[in-house]
Amino acid sequence: MITNSSEQSRHPEANNTGLLIIKGLKEKSQNSKRLLVEVLKWTGGQPVLTQQLCKLIVEAEDSPPLGAEAKWVEHLVQSRWLGNWENQPELVHLQTIRDRLLRQKQRSVRLLKLYRRVLQQGEVLVNESAEQRELRLLGLVTKQQGKLKIHNRIYESIFHLDWVESALKSLQSEIDPSDSEFLKTLSDLERKLLVSQVEILSKVDSETEDQGSAQALYEVLRDVTSKVGELLGADRATTFLLNEERTELWSLVAENEEGEFLDIQVRVGEGIAGQVALTKKVIHIADNVYNDPRATLVKEFDKKYNYRTENILAFPILNESKEVIAVIQLLNKLAQAQDLEGERQPPKHKGFTSLDLERLGKCVVPIRRILESCQSCYKVMKKLRATAALAEATRSLDQINLDTKAILHRVMNTAKKLMNADRSTLWLVDNDRGDLWTELPGKGEVRCEVGVGFVGHVAESRELMIIPFDLYEHPSAENAKKTDEQTRYRTCSLLCMPVISPDGELLGVTQLINKRKPGEHPEYNKDDWPIVPDYFKASFDKNDRQCMQVFNERVGVILQFVKTHETLKKLAQIEPKEAVYNTLAILGNSVADHTDEGLYNALYYMLSFIQSSVGKLLKAERTTIFLMDGEESEFWSVVVDAPGSDAKEIRISATMGIASKIVESRSIKASNKPGKLNDVLIHIGSDTTKIDSLHNLLLFPIVDIKGHVVAIIRAFNKLLSPLTSDATLAEKIDRNGFTQTDADKLRERNTGILPILQGCQAFHREIRTIQERRQAIDPLYKAISLVSQNSGNTEDIIQTVMQAAKELTNSDRTTLWLIDYKTNELWTKIPQADGTLIETRVPMGEGFAGKVAETGHPVNIPFDLYNHPDSHMARKTDEKTHYRTCSLLCMPVLSCDGELLAVTQLVNKRTSGSLLEYDPTDWPEVPDYFQASFDENDQKDMEIFNNQVGVVLPNVMG
Prior knowledge:
By secondary structure, this protein is an alpha+beta fold. It is built from 31 helices and 27 strands.
């Protein structure tokens, strides 16, 4: 390649090499310029090839005859290079090009198809696709005047059309969407979903993160649908999920030509997908779709989104009960020619085949599992969003006049936002007048008779009412139509639910009107009445109902506190505003901090407030409330050992000792010698060193309307009244102890205390649910976060991955082996006792890690690994190091493109709770804590973990 003077000055070595080349050619031939022209015809100016070919010419035994330079150079290239290029050390970069072309199967097929087009057509228009950039980086093609062309004759002669066809045939035989590959793809997507669930459940603490977690779930669904469409050769694919009312299908992933997401909703029984949902049968229209009477909606959508459907396949996804949960709809089967790269060829529509149906049928189970997991995760997300929304509604209530109307407006504005409803109303029960009332903007107070209209009907029946679009088709819609005519508003859908207090009393009814489609839409225009805008053509579903049930439960607690604040005032002699606000603050704080400490501190705050009120009523020195758990087998309470420390839970059996007797008889127990009662109910939560300071005791059961014990109030040390401030505790004690009058006071307040304690029980159940959910995902999320946050060098990522994997699986030793394709080896850096790192290498295929790298398949060997037929190498290594290998889990780390990047190796699963380090002097004995095996959960967690490592590694390794 000829360079200009500035380039020569920057690269003197290139200048010297060029001079030597020219000198050598002049010595070889009198027509050296002609010889150089022929060289460049073969090399296209590629520097390495040009230098090597010139060197080959100079070192040739003969010289080119004058006038026959072209033929002589061609013969030299053909005889010395092209026939045996793979064994020529000077052409090693051609081997690199070949290896990079064939390394990643899916990507390689795309590159080879593009390269084939360039070979066949001579040139291809430049479009800056990833494949075009990759071919240019490899040097196979060059950009000239907006077109891609083969770089030189040498590349064209070595990587010729027959070579490309052979390589493609070999690759495609390996990656054709066979059943096993199809299932593997779905398995990868399911793992991606699990990672997304970890992210979703870890991002519910703020509104912005909640939006991000919703997007993560959305992307999983889109990817599942896209992959099914891709593997079955469809131009478009859509997943329709069936709502739990089984009335409507809705899509999450359909896209138009501009790549925008479409919001498509179809009633069951309507259109192709609706018919499949209704009949549970496959519909396949191979040609002339528009002539099919079932395709009316297809024509409408095609016209709206500028598309033409030639053939269609709609397939029901059934659960284990043979009920439809979703419909997958595929449009326009594409011919293989469609897979050409660089430009879009006109598709050839041939219809879907029996093989497509058979393959899809075999993969229903993993597809169903993914979709059901998505739905489950979506429900959890909506429940947490409901909790967070109520926290937003109740936060800062102290800044406004704390009355029922203020709460009414704030709560329903939040419900409207949460449910994406156009209008929302909270109707409250007026027990004195026997009807319901609310306040509407611009109208003031409005009342509704029980049993009249949708709201009145829900108040009368105490059952929810959900009416999908279009509400005007409902038999009881006459009243709504009349109201709409007066107000010039169009009611299209409705969700009406009762608000019940913790003790079962009807407090009100929430009414949501007109579910709005996602996105930004204008306010309803009265001038358009009675036309229905497109964004009102939506329905409230079971997810909305469940979300509002959670929401209404919290609203019921709030309204109950508002309603019973006078009772609280009598109990604690405090201002009503303080009583209500304290409770609202608890509810708000409980969703702001989802840690165990935050949740239990919130519960302690709630309980201590009630305990303080009861203590003041009884004039007791200290009071503890023990609540029955959901299984009715234990009582629990929350205590703080020292001021400023976190709250913790304490539990006692409800089937033993004094507690069991109180549960059976619902009787009160009092004693003036509690220190002599050897029972856990007396001593738990108390300072054992101060047992002598307990002078009298009252145990009082709180009983619900069914006669079941909900809680036991434990009060110690009845105090004299009035108290002398400078008196000792012993002087303050009323030696007569608690009396029947004290018990009567509690019995009178049982009705006011009961709903508050039931609210505490409900909150406690929610804490346990969150803990169970977190227990399943926290270790994995911690490991993923640790790796994701790593931004250091390769040595740092090796150590980070090893430590994270060790903690995740409770393994004794871990190693991250990285792949070196140049040497065909695995390598890592192992820390030494002095803190230094020593590089270690093993050949590909050697040992367990090497075999995993070679095959791409995980290896899980349970205890005892020495019984495994391939354990000889591990035994030899153990003998040198005096370490005992007992179990092993070895798994591949793949990039997003499926390229093998590394292997994680976990050695010796440890039994739970074991902390001892292995002592080399005990070798070859097996300690008890090594007698364990990696299980399916470890393997599944490591699959997800390795996915994240595969994302991080390319960035660190460059």
